[in-house]
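Friendly challenge for the regulars: who can give me the structure tokens for this chain first? No prize, just bragging rights.
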Amino acid sequence: MSNIYLLSPYCDTQYKTPPASLNYIRYYLKDNGLESTIYDCAYFDKEYDEIIEILKKGESAPIVGITGYTRERFHAYRLVKRVRQELPDATIVVGGRHFGYLAHETLSHLSEVD
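First reply, four minutes later:
Bragging rights claimed.
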């Protein structure tokens, strides 16, 4: 089974609580027998080097879920592209307000998303 990582992209604000939406997904996965790990990228470097190293320590084909609000969309786009570049066999899933409301635009302009 692949590792499942749930990521919130980099933003300038470090919130004290983990992203609630990712926790909902994590508990849903757990209820269905799947383990996952949440990483809030606001606590890591802006270029995602540390997160990529964490992802590379797992299996070569992880499942990576990335959430994004519109205010952090460009950081989310960079994260998606970086994950695809560094882990070409990863399955990349996106969600959250920005990607949910602009699903067609996301799939047409962000070919790295599965």
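The chain has a mean pLDDT of 92. Residues 73-86 form the longest helix (14 residues). Your move, everyone else.
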